[in-house]
Write a structure and sequence with these properties.
By secondary structure, the protein is α/β, with parallel strands linked by helices. The protein has two domains: 254 residues, Metallo-beta-lactamase, Chain A; 85 residues, Alpha Horseshoe (Serine Threonine Protein Phosphatase 5, Tetratricopeptide repeat), CATH 1.25.40. 40% of the residues lie in helices and 16% in strands. A seven-stranded mixed beta sheet has the order 1-2-3-4-5-6-7, with helices on one face.
């Protein structure tokens, strides 16, 4: 099935909305007086005041009209101020559709690091298109012709008010507090409305294992993230409007539990990873297999998008260097040269693929895919090799729970079918 960010995420993950709350879409939901939450791919919260609306986030550009249409079922007030919780395209690019005809440009507030993010997007547009195509199950050739993967630039309506650590403001007699917290991004903010006791954590809470380990993206900050979650819990919010998934309304006990259990999850991964690093700095892959993610049945801590293994690697990257710890990988040979040598030792790329298929049949898809990579990199011109490797990665994808892992493996299969190694 051809997939893109426009396909509902729960369908992409093979789940119903009831099975994975991360994929909830709907609204408007009244979470407090004159306050509405709506979500389609990502969430937007609107606080109506006597001076106009305060929006927290604005959605993806392609979905701005849909989200705005939901909100306009409840209010036609102009937008007075906007707070972007981060600079990702599903939060900061859909604003134009929320503005009423003839209204003045709203004040747009963000952390001071956000303009630098947009500059980086401008410098790396094709790279971002490629990695997001992989993340959503495609390949580079598809990314070049697919609009939703090519929006990595400064938004049409960028921030005009930047803050450093904390900003308090009053709009129409309603007070808002904006707090910086490094988490999924270095420019992340969370928003608290004390009068209405509504918390907007952005992607610091997403109804799933925190997106703190994305294997293709820049550094994430799980330790800072956990500290931020604890600060939010201390406020005892009555309603929570997350970056992804459905709201929690008038349930402070549940919200506190959700925030603290998510913080505990991150803290456990950080503590275990640092303990392993301090144990004579073993190779990174060994650390990954030594850390045991906390076991939980909580629906807000299931690996539906990101997963613990990726978070552990991000923690290693934050506290250590880029080298894997394997001596041969400090100054390695090219992958193609290594693949050809291994294929020759094995009796050819076909023999490597057969062994990969044997390991897969025995249930060891991790090892099977290592062998398959070498077979493809040694003989990418062989249609039989390409087809066999693609089939292995299709099987690997089917067994993954996180959307991120599933779609990167689907992308690997797509690359193989195109006769290219996935690298």
């Amino acid at each position: 099935m051809d997939q893109s960010p426009m396909t509902p995420f729960y369908e992409m993950a093979g789940k119903s909305p009831e099975e994975a709350k991360f994929f909830w879409s709907g609204g408007p939901v009244e979470v407090a007086p004159r306050t509405w939450f709506q979500s389609w791919l990502s969430g937007v919260t609107a606080f109506e005041t006597d001076a106009g609306l305060v929006l927290v986030d604005s959605g993806l550009r392609q979905l701005g009209a849909k989200l705005a249409g939901m909100l306009r079922q409840r209010t036609n007030a102009p937008v007075h101020s906007v707070i972007f919780t981060q600079g990702h395209i599903d939060h900061a690019f859909g604003l134009k559709d929320f503005l009423v005809p003839g209204q003045a440009r709203p004040r747009i507030i963000a952390h001071r690091a956000m303009p630098e993010r947009f500059q980086r997007y401008e410098l790396t547009q094709r790279f971002n298109a490629a990695i997001n195509a992989r993340q959503f199950g495609g390949s580079v050739s598809r990314a070049e012709t697919t609009e939703e993967f090519n929006n990595f630039r400064t938004p049409e309506l960028p921030p005009d008010t930047l803050y450093e650590d904390r900003l308090a403001l009053s709009v129409g007699g309603v007070r808002f507090e904006i707090h910086h917290c490094r988490g999924e991004t270095d420019d992340h903010s969370w928003v608290w409305c004390p009068e209405r006791r509504v918390l907007c954590p952005g992607d610091l809470f997403i109804w799933g294992v925190p997106n703190a380990g994305n294997p293709q993206k820049v550094q994430r900050y799980p330790r800072d993230w956990a500290l931020g979650l604890r600060r939010m819990a201390a406020l005892e919010p009555r309603s929570l409007c997350p970056g992804h998934g459905g709201p929690v309304v008038d349930n402070p006990t549940l919200i506190r539990r959700m925030l603290l259990e998510t913080a505990d999850y991150l803290d456990s991964l950080v503590a275990q990873t640092l303990a392993a690093l301090n144990d004579s700095a073993p190779p990174h892959v060994d650390i990954v297999h030594r850390v045991a993610p906390p076991k939980t049945e909580a629906p807000w801590l299931q690996p539906v998008y990101d997963e613990a293994e990726f978070i552990i690697r991000n923690i290693i990257r934050h506290y250590g260097g880029w080298w894997s710890g394997r001596p041969s990988e400090l100054k390695p040979a090219t992958r193609s040269a290594l693949a050809r040598e291994i294929a020759e030792l094995a009796g050819g790329a076909a023999a490597l693929l057969r062994r990969a298929e044997t390991r897969a049949a025995a249930g060891d898809l991790r090892l099977a895919c290592h062998l398959a990579d070498y077979a493809l990199e040694a003989a990418a011109e062989d249609p039989a090799i390409c087809s066999g490797v693609a089939a292995l990665y299709d099987r690997r994808a089917e067994r993954e729970t996180s959307l991120m892992a599933r779609n990167i493996f689907r992308s690997a299969a797509a690359y193989a079918r195109e006769g290219r190694a996935f690298a």
